[in-house]
Write the structure tokens for this entry.
Amino acid sequence: MNARDSLSRKVFTARTLVERGVFRPARPDRLVRTVLALRRWGPTAAAGYETSAIRYPDRAAVVDELGSLSFAEVHRRTNALAHALADRGVGEGDHVAVLCRNHRGMIDVTVACSKLGAHALYLNTMFSGPQIRDVCDRHEPKAIVYDEEFADVVAPAREGRLGVVAWTEGEAAPGDERLEDLVAAGDPAAVRPSARKGRVTILTSGTTGSPKGADRRQPESLEPVAALLDRIPYRALEPVHVAAPMFHSWGYANWMLAISLSSTVVLRRRFDPEACLAAVARHRCTGLVVVPVMLQRILELGPEALDRHDTSSLRVIAASGSALPGELALRVMDRFGDVLYNLYGSTEVAWATIATPQDLRAAPGTAGRPPRGTVVRLFDEEGREVPPGRTGRIFVGNEMAMEGYTGGGHKQSIGGLLSSGDVGHVDAGGRLFIDGRDDEMIVSGGENVFPREVEDCLADHEAVEEVAVVGVEDERFGQRLRAFVVLRRDVDPDVLKAHVRANLAAYKVPRDVVVLDELPRNATGKVLKRVLAAS
């Protein structure tokens, strides 16, 4: 990168952060302390809460079912927790496994790890006991911080490790300490920064195999934050309801954005569609962070329930984590206004593209365009770049891409760009569309079919609420398509087949259409297609 490019990036970052209210006038003494804190910690979670505690000590940092915590309180709590964990043997470079829903304890332990230079290892709340034990055997965490409800599933991995209960509605499990007790007993004095920064390890969802840890270093600058804020118009000091799970990369990324903006993070341990809207209305949230299935559940409440809650404060509904059907995007915007932003990415590549409301209106179903600092290229099987309109494998490059899987190995890379694991195409306007997983291609009678195109077609039918398409073995054709649908109203499967036949090639018409009450999903809303294929 030459000096001119470097200057341009710095100017872009500074301008964007000023526009979004991150950089604003401050008392000279607070400004000096803020600069010193950033020098000590770099762009980390530890820095985020310390600098916010300096500038806005009394503003609400976290709101959950237990109430509100100010930035000063979070800073003191995480200092105390860091000292308490250090007293129990957790130090720089150690892993701390975290199995928590969205609440203050999740934030406490992550920030405490950041201050210690330890690595937070996020566990999926839907993992089974054997999966958790397998992950812990591979990463060897010194401690496991968990919500009381998960005591049984962490028990096999808990043996020989420090156990800390982050959320309990009763007594902690025998032999384990409560996080609140550690905070109360810990020293709230400043923590000396470690020589190396801590990392956060986010696990893949395990939808296609055993979950793997994606190691991601802390960013070296605020440029990635500016790149997202340039496309998603969050503003500083505004409440954001993070409904998406924070153990997943999407919920985590939005929490980190909120830290950089000194914004109040509103949390609930479990997603309930009406409670979600009530939280937005009560706290006048300007941002709502969801996975697409949450939007589906919100719309299912119906007009009467939706009208009970004033959501006019929303300027951003940010969705990611699974495919956002174009029909759903239009329904959301028709109801809440043109405030929907769809981010496409993965645990491995972080983000690739962002679709603005204008993109979604112009081309429903699009994943959008790359933000500044991100490169997206599509390649064929021989590693040659494909032209617009042609389907290719998606490769992404940016500062936030993973460094590798924690157990070894890496995603395929071409020219420094990392595979997202998906295939897609780019339209004439430069917008990316996801056609499916690169391992989901169905070969039926010699023709290649990606499920996403058929799913989008079926989702456009007024009787279809949700849909998933898989390939199943067929003696004559090798594979055939089977569609699983959740319906809004009764409809003959032959009508749905005719709808596909009228819009797509004949070989893309599902041989079978199976009606279900609901699609099997994981905690982040992704459809478990391996379960459907085996049914």
